[in-house]
Amino acid sequence: MDTQMWHQRWEDNRIAFHLTEVNAHLQQFWSTLAPALAGRVLVPLCGKSLDMLWLAGEGHEVLGVEISPIAVQDFFRDNELKVGRREHRAFEIWRHGGVELWLGDFFDLGPDDVSDVSSVYDRASLIALPPTERMRYAEHMMRLAPRHAPILLVTLEYDPMEMSGPPFPVTESEVDTLYGQVYHVECLHRHDALADSAHFRSQGVTKLMEKVYRLTPR
Length: 218
Prior knowledge:
Elements: H1 3-11, H2 24-29, E1 40-43, H3 51-57, E2 61-66, H4 69-78, E3 84-88, E4 91-96, E5 99-103, E6 117-122, H5 131-144, E7 151-157, H6 172-179, E8 183-192, H7 198-202, E9 209-217
Parallel strand pairs: 1-2, 1-6, 2-5, 6-7
Antiparallel strand pairs: 3-4, 4-5, 7-9, 8-9
């Protein structure tokens, strides 16, 4: 993963991927992951997403993983949360209540770190990676996540000739290629998102499809 590029994007505040409200797909489809609705949720490449506070409000403990110290600092500062910190191997762990943000590289995360995770929420991590990195990411995720843990995955599809990511387009066939041997892949929802996406329109994108998947272990 090009960590320097992500550090630079946060330093330059080029974070159009960050939503200033809780993701509507999370609120609508999270309950479909039952019975894994209790327990800890892994949120990879979490940024400063408000989705983590929503998950905490639903009674979950949250483990977010983020490479940018700016994103981690902003999450706690913007939400006026007191924070405790500790070191753990390659990570600095920032915690408030049941929400932990692990500052460090997702690929340094080990299975023991997430052994108590019951589900995974991926809105902006798979699509943050170029094609050359996505197989590595998916393989690492499948090594990490306990075999019983389902994944709620949100992706985007658009013509890559019209815009250079991130976020990058990921097709249904690629999701199946990445995860299909370990997970049942079900597309729950397809949404024409272009009208709501000024950033994409400004980049010349003429068609933008947002898709929500439920991945359940085979």
